[in-house]
Amino acid sequence: MKIAIVGAGIVGVTTAFELAQDGHAVSVFEQRSAAAEESSFAAGGLLAPGLLSPWSAPGASPFPTLLGSQSTLRLGSALTLAEMSWLRRWRRAARACAKSGEPRPPLVALERLARYSQVRLLHLTESLDLRFEHSHGTLLLLRSPDDTKTLTAAIKALRDGGGTLHEVDADTARSIEPGLSPALHLAGALHAPEGLSGNCRQFALVMRQASQHRGAQFHFNTRVHRLAGHPIGVHVQGEATPRPFDAVVLCAGAQSAALLRPLGQNLPLVALHGSSVSAPLREELHAPQGVVVDVQTQTTIARLGQRVRVSGGAELGRGTAQAHPQTLNTLYRVLGECFPGGVTHSSGLQVWRGARPMLPDGPPAVGATTVPGLWLNLGHGASGWSLACGSARALADQIAGRTPDIDLEGLGAQRF
């Protein structure tokens, strides 16, 4: 088939690879000048366990606080009705999960997809001999005994899915991550030895090359401003008529909702912005070896080759293009508390802020729409890096008329 993909972030390029691998004629349209220039550019490095990524789903991390300098969710100067509705639904789902202590269906669906995606990523890395910065092991820091309680549902979902998660004391945590500051008070930690971290943008670029070697064509600096419904196609800005395709896969992140609306497809998709700071490695012994999650502040610190990336923050609503000053203060503070002396701040710092296109129950929308030929692979939120390879393979199987190797219950757009 002749298939168009809108968006060349991590989800778009992995989808392009899987479809090109299946023999389809793939065209990828991206408004920026290169792949992974927006949400995937400097995302947090946590790959697995995907469910432990802050803001992956309601109930997967502590309940968000809205007030004070230590708030984990910051609201912009003006929220739209859609954003307010999204926030109510997210908070309602998080409360229900916290009250029951049991993993709700969206949490189970997200864990299932994340585990499948990790297997697929490892297969691609080995079979294609892909080279990108990555490290092994995930450690969740528990600053107080209550931190464990906030993760009860996520921990149960992980273990029910077959994941390995060890409860360890502070001394064991420091033996796993020797660079942790001895002054940092810890009540304990959770250790996932099979955890992974990696450079999302590097992986996206090597996957773009692998897609091109299989015939996929990438059209950069090309903005799709409208979708055609009958027959299916894309309207490229500056062109009078739409380009026809047998199928269109929408992977356009936060812009997807506006493209879907004229076709009667209404998804509660919003942009939840996060930030990261990447700093050059100063002293190997004082830096993280894998990825560390600070549960209390909902931040991650990942080792990416000769750099360390600390990421976190959640901003909803209208704001500036720059990272919120208090979010940056939190990132610098957590990095200094956990790994003092591990990085240099004098030069080579990269500060980034990007959108996480998220749906209110957590999992992405993967599959067909009610418009013939229009498919979705979007809404991965903070878990795009963790879910991309699995959702791309599952979608390619659906388009080919095959039964995917994973149960996709709870991932269809029709759930909204």
Q: Write the element-wise H/E pattern from the N-terminal end onward.
A: EHEEEHHEHHEHEHEEEEEHEEEEHEEEH
- Residue runs with pLDDT of under 50 for 5 or more positions: none
Based on Cα principal axes, name the global outline. globular
Going by helix content, strand content and strand pairing, the class is alpha/beta
User: Main sheet?
Assistant: 10 strands, mixed
Determine the N-to-C terminus distance. Answer: 29 Å
CATH architecture of the domain at 58-81 and 134-197 and 270-357: 2-Layer Sandwich
Query: How helix-rich are the residues, as a percent range?
Result: 25-40%
General description of the model:
This protein is α/β, with parallel strands linked by helices. It has a domain at 58-81 and 134-197 and 270-357: D-Amino Acid Oxidase, subunit A, domain 2 (D-Amino Acid Oxidase, Chain A, domain 2, 2-Layer Sandwich). Helices cover 30% and strands 25% of the residues. Strand 15 and strand 16 (307-316) form a beta hairpin. The model has no long low-confidence stretch (mean pLDDT 91).
Topology:
Blueprint: E1 2-6, H1 10-21, E2 25-29, E3 46-48, E4 74-75, H2 81-100, H3 105-127, E5 134-142, H4 146-150, H5 152-160, E6 166-168, H6 170-176, E7 188-198, H7 200-213, E8 217-219, E9 224-228, E10 233-236, E11 243-244, E12 247-250, H8 256-260, E13 270-280, E14 291-294, E15 299-304, E16 307-316, H9 325-338, E17 350-358, E18 365-368, E19 374-378, H10 384-399
Parallel strand pairs: 1-2, 1-12, 2-8, 4-16, 5-14, 12-19
Antiparallel strand pairs: 3-7, 5-7, 6-7, 9-10, 10-11, 13-16, 13-17, 14-15, 15-16, 18-19
Helix pairs in contact: 1-7, 1-10, 3-10
